[in-house]
Structure formats: C-alpha cells, structure tokens
Amino acid sequence: MKTLVAQDIVEELRTGADEAVRLYVAACAERMAPLFIGLHTGEAGREADVELYKKSVSDLWRTDRPLPDAAQRARLLDRFPELQPAEDGITDTVGTYAFFACLVLRYALLANASGSADHAVSCGHAALTAMGMLDQNIAGAAFKADEQRLQTLPASGNAAGLWDASMAAGRERLRAVLSRIARGTH
C-alpha cells in the first residue's frame, strides 16, 4: 500500500526503537483528539466513549513502555459507531472527522502495544488523509502540510515541544471543522 507518510519517516519507524514508534503515534493521536473529543463531548450516550478516548490519548504519552491494555482499548474502540460499517457510509462533517480521529487512535493503540512500524505508518497515513480532506474543504488551508511537518519531529529526535505543538494543531483543526459546521458546509 502506498502511504502518505514520508519515506524517511517510514524508514525511521522501521529501524528505530519501539519508544520512537510510541512517541510518533502519541503525537498523531494528540493532534486528532479534538476532532473526536470536541465533537462528542456532551453528546448523550457517548460519555464513556469520550472518556476512553481522553484516557487513551493521555496514556499514550507514557512512551517508555507499552500500555498493558492497549490492545483491549483498541478492541473497545472498534465498537464505536464511527468504526462500524454503515450502509450509507459517512456523509456528514462530524462523522467524517470523528471517524478519522478514531482510526488514528486505533492504529496508535495497536502500534503502542506491538511496536509495529506498519501500525504507526497507518496511524500517520490516516491523519494525513483527514488533513488532506480538510484542506480540500477550506480555501487556503494547509493542515496536511502542517501534519507532515509535525510528523517529522519525533523521528528527527527533535521532540522538544512536540506535545504543545500537537495540542495547538489539534485545537486549530477543531476550530476549522466547527467553522465548516457553522457555515453549513457539511
């Protein structure tokens, strides 16, 4: 499968330590988190889903060892409505970006548990796909380019400020999606 993740990052994930894989996916998940948490907080019936998402993203930042229940959390995530097959597919803005946020977290949890570079690459690819879609729907946006830049930080050994940068990027993404919803362009 061709991936949107830069080849040098793919190589670094394949040859680097498991801790580098865990840092990479933690950052990807952090940047996508507002697109699930921000769009579903306060929604009736989704409280447990939001809590699982929040806890998982927070726990992923403990990169020194795999989460003992990461695979179990991925299985719980598989039950989220966003990851269930739907006859009509996903057609609305909230559903689309929440789906990608769930997909990124799912791959992040799997990569955390296994140290698999393939899962990490799938995580980064899903984030880049979502940001490419967001760019297509907002004139002049550069979310995909920003995601590409941010994905280079953990692999380059320059992780200083990565959490802050990921938090800021996630907030910007949520603002952009909310502005699309407010304009009625979903």
Alpha-carbon distance between the two ends: 29 Å
Question: Can you count the beta strands?
Answer: 0
CATH architecture: Up-down Bundle
Shape: globular
Which CATH class?
Mainly Alpha
Q: Enter the CATH topology name.
A: YP_001051499.1 fold like
Structural features, described:
The protein is mostly helical. It has one domain: YP_001051499.1 domain like (YP_001051499.1 fold like, Up-down Bundle), CATH 1.20.1590.10. It contains nine helices and no strands. Helix 2 (18-32) runs antiparallel to helix 8, helix 3 packs across helix 6 and helix 8 packs antiparallel against helix 9 (162-183). The mean pLDDT is 93.
Topology of helices and strands:
Blueprint: H1 7-15, H2 18-32, H3 34-40, H4 47-60, H5 70-77, H6 93-114, H7 117-137, H8 143-155, H9 162-183
Brief synopsis:
With 186 residues, the chain is mostly helical.
List keywords for this structure.
single chain; 186 residues; mainly alpha; YP_001051499.1 fold like; 9 helices; 70% helix
